[in-house]
Amino acid sequence: MPTPGTRLAGKTALVTGAARGIGAAIARAFAAEAARVIVTDIDVEGGQATASAIGGTFARLDVASEAGWDEIASRFPALDVLVNNAGITGFEGPLEGAPPAHDPESARLADWRAVHAVNLDGTFLGCRYGIRAMRARGAGSIINISSRSGLVGIPMAAAYASSKAAIRNHTKSVALYCAGQGLNIRCNSIHPAAVMTPMWEPMLGTGPDRADREAALVADTPLRRFGRPEEVAALAVLLASDEAAYMTGAELTIDGGILAGSAAPPG
Ligand SMILES: NC(=O)c1ccc[n+]([C@@H]2O[C@H](COP(=O)([O-])OP(=O)(O)OC[C@H]3O[C@@H](n4cnc5c(N)ncnc54)[C@H](O)[C@@H]3O)[C@@H](O)[C@H]2O)c1
Q: Residue 9 needs a FRET pair 20 to 30 A away by CA distance; which of 106, 132, 223, 237 works?
């Protein structure tokens, strides 16, 4: 838990997918910096738990639902900070049986669309709501959680990688649009990799080889460990705060150094 501060005092922030993982850590970090936090998720129980632990407000929101965002807009018409964090890999189901194929040759259109509906449509709808909710005050910060997978190709998770790459680009369109409108609404993307959250559970499994799988997954990470959700949350606090007033359209990697080099280094 970060030391309580006031870096976000007076700001109202909405975080999607905040029942657990990175979203929950961001909600906690925002509250610790004195923001009023609106916790949203499709997981009602988890979302309520996050909200009550930080004195925030919970609202159920499926980010892929336009009607859901309309309800949010009527309940929370004004906002200072929005974090479009909710995301899925498409491999959320239990590990039994073969995982669905998401490679470019055999991915099913329905699976492709399901991943894009949450990750990309959800971010588009969120940004649209965020701009409208920040327009009256003429200022705000929109933070889109993309991924390392939005910057490089991921052959076996092509839908996820495509959706995250589109989030990166849409972030820049939003940043330029807002600036062009004379609005001080900033929009930036965060690109995490290998952050230990429940998202990794299907890949780690529960068997005796779990520790080996975990070690193998970070073997090529320069810092040789998984990141912590709180480390991503710290970056979100910076982008949400007025300290980042000159940052818009930026993409920030937080990946233990993975993207600093190449898998085929010159030596
Ligand atoms: N953990 C990582 O290593 C990592 C790496 C890169 C990017 N990310 C991104 O960070 C974000 C958070 O990931 P995480 O690891 O905390 O995942 P997670 O699976 O632990 O949490 C995701 C949360 O989103 C919620 N959610 C799923 N679908 C939703 C929907 N349609 N509407 C609203 N909420 C929904 C889930 O209920 C859950 O609470 C995601 O966008 C993910 O792609 C994570």
A: 132
Question: Is the beta carbon of 204 within 6 A of some atom in ligand 1?
Answer: no
The yes-or-no answer on residue 129 being catalytic is: no
Under 8 Å CB-to-CB from 105, ≥6 apart: which residues? none
CATH of domain 12-254: 3.40.50.720
> Is residue 184 a contact partner of residue 246, using CB atoms and an 8 Å limit?
no
Q: Where are the domains of the chain?
A: 12-254
Query: Is residue 80 a contact partner of residue 140, using CB atoms and an 8 Å limit?
Result: yes
**How many Å apart are CA 80 and CA 82, to the nearest integer?**
7
Tens digit of each residue's pLDDT (9 = 90 or more) over 12-66: 999 999 999 999 999 999 999 999 999 999 999 999 999 999 999 999 999 999 9
- Nearest ligand 1 atom to alpha carbon 65: 31
